[in-house]
Amino acid sequence: MAENQAPDVKLPDPVEMSRAMTRIAEQSQRLVTEFLSRQASDGVGAKNPDPMGVGHAFLEMTTRMMADPAKLMKAQMTLWQDYLTLWQRTTQRFFGQEAQPVIAPAKDDRRFKDSAWDENTLFDFIKQSYLLSARWMQSTVNEVDGLDDHTAKKVDFYTRQFVDAMAPSNFVMTNPEVLRTTIETGGENLVKGLEHLLKDLERGKGELRISMTDYDAFQVGKNIAVTPGKVVFQTDLMQLIQYTPTTPEVNKRPLMIVPPWINKYYILDLREKNSFIKWAVDQGHTVFVLSWVNPDEKLAQKGFEDYMFEGPLAALDAIAKITGEKDVNAIGYCLGGTLLASTLAYMAAKKDDRIKSATFFTTMLDFTEAGELSVFIDEEQLTFIENQMAEQGYLDGSKMATTFNMLRANDLIWSFVVNNYLLGKDPFPFDLLYWNSDSTRMPAAMHSFYLRNMYQKNLLAQPGAVSIGGVPIDLRTVKTPSFFLSAREDHIAPWKSTYMGANLFSGPVKFVLAASGHIAGVVNPPAAGKYCYWTNAKLPKTSDDWLKSSEQTPGSWWPEWNKWVSTFSEGKVPARDPEKGGLPALEDAPGSYAKVRIV
């Protein structure tokens, strides 16, 4: 708040406050008792108190840091000089003089968007003091010599997690917006925040599951994932959805979409205005989508090859029976793209060419530079994950969700801590965040295979190093025309890594780079008029060379893709009704598999 601006003060009702705190205390005691009881029975932490190996990494970092005291002293002197400058300029502001900031937050840092962070001298000092300390801490650990690459990445990642957690915006007494709200409401915001906290603890059965949206505002098949269609086929692992056409004629060659099973397919069908599936239907495609099951312990032994046989290969057979068309155009998104590429290599070995074009959304095939997710991939952590999966038969969906949220902790963790618990606000209804919270489990056998062979050993990029269905596969044998769509700010599938994978194929490859990240870069309808994308007629060896000679185009890349894929459409045929195909319709889209919710 500005120095001269006094907010209205509302005194709390002592009776209501007492009742609320009594209720909170009773609920807290019950939750803590249940949580401790469950921890004791599970033996959590007894076998390995540091399963992520964080302590070991920081111990090694500290040992090497102390081996060069002169370098550490220099870093501390630099910090001290920055603080002296900050104190001097803050003193100038207290005396009414103008003073330039020593350090400023990044333009996209929303933690300090409240005007008081700039207008109020005290809060400006708190902000700059934090930013200086954060910069010093991260630069100091980044400059430690002698650490292996993986340990250095782990130290950097968890240092950032600590730095983000300690931001002054995350605490009542150092967040001007929270202080102002507390004074204006007589502390009601903090009481509501405590109630939100307890509800989230109760929802997570003792573990904190931060509510990112109003979960009651959405229902799959009612106001989200509503593009009309039918489930026309299913296996243990997926339901095949065929969507109802909206054009009198459709492309002769159907379109098969293989989404990831780390999340639900309907990221491509959130609402009518941003649904890629509906847009593709409107362009005249006969769209089939694989909706993966949310597996439990009964499917623990389902492996990566089972996802291929019971996923895209089974879908190809079903599509042929339904439409009479043997060939398809295919799309794979993220892990679904990794599966699609593996399937193409398997089909190449079997002389099977039913997939005539392949599109890959933010897909990694070469995991040499796997981005920040590689922080979680080492022998110690993989063994811990495998032991957990051995007990349950699957990886709990919440574990995967937490991992992804940590990659963008300020946006996906701490902003909700401030909004829900400090400001006491109800979560805003947001379809994307509802989807993000709709977690899916990973079968033990499949997930172990994926993490070890792709992330840990990078075997998929090596000829014949991975066998599927007893067949050694080689991505270099794939001659299918391919379209690679990557996102420039993608933290999950870094675009330079996806570019390396695109160079593995021997067929023609069109590489397109979208602005924004893993989701927004893909789900960017033309009508929104947002972002831009880059294209290049050539595919040089390095991503940097590709970007240097690329051409930037404003707006969505969707029309660019449709123009490309239409060259493989094989003309037009009358629209196909999913209720009148070669297989009977089983139920309405989005189907029962997509509706299984584990939170």
UniProtKB/TrEMBL annotation:
Residue span(s) of domain AB hydrolase-1: 282-524
Keyword Oxidoreductase appears in the UniProt entry: no
Principal place of residence: cytoplasm
Annotated Gene3D superfamilies: alpha/beta hydrolase
Keywords for the protein's UniProt record, in alphabetical order: Acyltransferase, Cytoplasm, Transferase
InterPro entries: AB_hydrolase_1, AB_hydrolase_fold, PHA/PHB_synthase, PHA_synth_I, PhaC_N
Superkingdom in the source lineage: Bacteria
Positions of the Poly-beta-hydroxybutyrate polymerase N-terminal domain: 108-280
Subcellular location, record wording: Cytoplasm
Protein's name according to its UniProt entry: Class I poly(R)-hydroxyalkanoic acid synthase
Gene behind the chain: phaC
